[in-house]
From TrEMBL:
PROSITE patterns: FKBP_PPIASE, TPR. Pfam families: FKBP_C. Its EC number is 5.2.1.8. This is peptidylprolyl isomerase. SMART domains: TPR (SM00028). The keyword Cytoplasm does not apply. Residues 76-163, 191-282, 310-402 form the PPIase FKBP-type domain. It is an enzyme of class 5 (isomerase). TPR repeats lie at residues 503-536. It comes from Ceratodon purpureus.
């Protein structure tokens, strides 16, 4: 073994038992070979073990730790210990047993190397004796008068407690010391709502701010009081308690803050000490792609499965208006369950979208804007009349659900039937003017027949292809009215990949191109339509609109370029005038004695004049 090898011994290393043979049991004290002994033996009371492979540090456990979590402190953590230090002859040279415990930061050189390496192997409540060789203690110099030079030392250490210290922002701006470990493993996200208790003080202990007895709630990304809060809570677990040291840039800045209401003033460039507890937090999730429907989870669900389209869900819910009035309350009694089939339009769209994101047992509060509710219609519900354009709030519990077959589990005829059902639902919504939701139905239907390879050749494949084109054309018609022109181009182009002379696809793509001012492409599509159907009235009207746009566009371009050329002419005229003015200001050349070479007054250079043409 390398005498200078100071690596910590791991269970992969063969560990030497330094007990006398008379204290060993041949049956139970096997060394474990090259793989080392079971980890339990590393913690056996009364057994001296090498912690470093070079023998510079050994440990004998006197008492096991009391903490149920088998964790040990790490470098940078703040530890508190009682200890007694003795010389080889048993002389005590230092002890805290009759005074306050000793607190230090582990692994940063505040104590001897033997302590830094030894204490990080301990657990809370553990007591152990460490034998530290001189190179890991005070070396050849010793520490007179108590510790002679080149002396091995014994330390009886009890780890009373330890706090993890973490650099939250990795720039020293917010240092976090964990006073009480939190539960679970999850931490809040930017969009989540957290509830905290806190006290904010200056370094001298002056109280600046304190939360109410029932705590405060805030959205993480919006923060609270000062920037440190939103950074700190994202690193915390539920019920975790910490102490923060906050530098001015994460507090109230170099300018501080004047007294505000019941809160005290913050001096210039002040460092803050914050006691912070994360009491609880609710996940906030975006339900719809446009981020208009958002749910707050108040009780987490089971497992990971969620309903799919066509699932039958059993729920209970309470619906309220913005003023708190309850307009609907269903399923709250066990004998009156509410069963809903997702994607069958049995509840408002925003609630249906939310149900598709929930797990069994989940409870959430969802806020639904008018466009995902009853829109601009009045609606008489069970308990109240809902005014037009009302924002709705539902508290919903997902009791159970039975999933429908996913699309990939359906055979060809089943896929065609599912797509046809979505087409019919979309048509009903289109007739009612609910274009956005009609487009969604067409889109969902199109997914069932997107890939033709799974359908049998012949009528089945032809039916799937025809349905696919119809769904994309219908969705394009909705998107056109919703001014989603790039999507219209994409949808109609996919239809034209199947049928290059589909007149509806060419016409709707031309309309989209025209709206996007791609006038040349629009003209090309309209030309194909009119060549195929010269009497197509809609195409003729669209051609007239396109012609007007082209004329207006040319006029605009002519005006734009005309203005540009006019500006260029003006600039040239201005530059010419300035040049003429500069020549006019030159001094008159007097009668020349030698016309071939003159010195112009006011200039420090020679001007050569053509001898035959003095004006050149």
């Amino acid at each position: 073994m390398d005498p200078d090898d100071e690596r910590l011994v791991t269970k992969e290393d063969k560990i030497e038992d330094v007990r006398p043979k008379s204290f060993r049991c041949e049956m139970h004290d096997k060394s474990g070979g090259e793989d080392g002994p079971p980890e339990l033996k590393m913690k056996e009371v009364g057994v001296e073990r090498k912690l470093l492979k070079n023998g510079g540090l050994t440990k004998t456990v006197v008492k096991h730790g009391t903490c149920k979590h088998p964790k040990s402190p790490l470098s940078g953590d703040e530890v508190t210990v009682h200890y007694t230090g003795t010389l080889p002859d048993g002389t005590v040279f230092d002890s805290t047993r009759d005074k306050e415990p000793f607190t230090f930061k582990l692994g940063v050189g505040q104590v001897i190397r033997g302590w830094d390496k030894g204490v990080k192997t301990m657990r809370k409540g553990e007591q152990a004796v460490f034998t530290v060789q001189p190179q890991y203690a005070y070396g050849k110099a010793g520490q007179p008068p108590g510790i002679p030079p080149d002396t091995p030392l014994r330390f009886d250490i009890e780890l009373l407690s330890w706090c993890s210290v973490k650099d939250v922002c990795r720039d020293g701006g917010v240092m976090k010391k964990i006073v009480r470990e939190g539960k679970s493993w999850e931490t809040p996200k930017d969009s989540d709502e957290v509830k905290v208790n806190y006290e904010v003080k200056l370094e001298d202990g002056t109280l600046i701010s304190k939360s109410p007895d029932d705590g405060v709630k805030f959205i993480v990304e919006e923060g609270w009081l000062c920037p440190a809060f939103k950074h700190a809570v994202k690193s915390m677990k539920i019920e975790e308690v910490v102490v923060l040291m906050v530098q001015p840039e994460y507090g109230f800045g170099i300018d501080g803050r004047e007294a505000k209401d019941s809160e005290g003033p913050v001096p210039l460039n002040a460092t803050l000490i914050v006691d912070l507890e994360l009491v609880s937090w609710n996940s906030v999730e975006i339900v719809t792609d446009d981020k208009k429907v958002i749910k707050k989870i108040t009780k987490k669900g089971e497992s990971y499965e969620k309903p799919n389209g066509g699932s039958t869900v059993t729920i209970k819910y309470v619906g309220t208006l913005s003023d708190g009035a309850i307009f609907e309350k269903r399923g709250l009694h066990p004998e009156d369950p509410v069963t809903v089939t997702i994607d069958d339009d049995q509840v408002v769209p925003g609630l249906e979208e939310t149900l598709a994101t929930m797990k069994k047992g989940e409870v959430c509060i969802v806020m639904i804007p008018p466009e995902y509710g009853f829109e601009n219609e009045e609606k008489q519900c069970h308990l109240a009349l809902v005014p037009a354009n009302s924002t709705l709030t539902y508290e919903v519990e997902m009791i159970s659900f039975v999933k429908a077959k996913d699309s990939w589990d359906l055979d060809g005829p089943q896929k065609i039937a599912a797509a046809a059902k979505k087409k019919d639902q979309g048509n009903d919504l289109f007739k009612k003017g609910k274009l956005f939701f009609a487009a969604r139905k067409y889109e969902k239907g199109g997914r069932h027949v997107e890939y033709e390879s799974i359908f049998a050749d012949g009528d089945e494949k032809n039916d799937a292809r025809s349905l696919k084109m119809t769904l994309k054309l219908n969705e394009a018609a909705c998107r056109l009215k919703l001014n989603s022109f790039p999507e219209v181009v994409d949808l109609t182009s996919k239809v034209l990949e199947i049928d290059s002379m589909n007149l509806k696809a060419l016409f709707r793509r031309a309309q989209a191109y025209s709206a996007m001012m791609d006038l040349e492409l629009a003209e090309q599509d309209l030309k194909k339509v009119l060549e195929s159907d010269p009497n197509n009235r809609d195409a003729k009207l669209e051609q007239k609109k396109l012609n007007k746009k082209q004329v207006a566009h040319r006029k605009t371009e002519a005006k734009l370029y005309g203005n540009m050329f006019a500006r260029l002419i003006k600039m040239e005229e201005k530059e010419s005038k300035q040049a003429d003015k500069g020549l006019a200001n030159l001094p008159q050349v007097p009668a020349l004695i030698n016309p071939a070479e003159v010195s112009v007054q006011g200039y420090n250079q020679r001007v050569t004049v053509c001898p035959s043409h003095a004006g050149c």
